[in-house]
Write a structure and sequence with these properties.
With 148 residues, the chain is an alpha/beta fold. Helix content is 20%, strand content 39%. The protein has a single domain, classed as D-tyrosyl-trna(Tyr) Deacylase, Chain: A (3-Layer(bba) Sandwich). The strands form two sheets. Strands 1, 2, 3, 6, 7 and 8 form a six-stranded mixed β-sheet that branches. It has a two-stranded antiparallel ribbon with strand order 4-5. Helix 1 runs parallel beside helix 2.
Amino acid sequence: MRALIQRVTKASVQVDSQVVGQIDQGLLILLCAMAGDTETEVEKLASKVTKLRIFMDENGKMNRSIIDIAGAALVVSQFTLAADTSRGNRPGFSHAANPDDGRKLYEYFIVEMQNSGTSVETGEFGADMRVSLINDGPATFWMDTSQS
């Protein structure tokens, strides 16, 4: 699993000019299931994300998690995180999970986040979406379960 995580003060996602998900303080999580990923990778990533201490404490240090601040998560599927740009000028996406597996793992990730006590909003899997955000910091983190 791959995720690009952005600490935000606000974020929203639209499909066909309609807002389908929005949050205030929390995390925008752009999520990609990779070929061969299983529920084990989802559980590992969701656990790490919910415990990641990237929110400021009273001393201005990154020392609080999304759970500590009672923040929300906006989870958006983004298969382009699987892009292979090593050859030529056109990205390849053969490393992404197939759409059926990708959807199942995306939905399982949402459930795992909710099970942690995190409020979760979502985009629409496979849709053409417009994502808006106010990145807080800016603070952006790359996570890949194959590299941890």
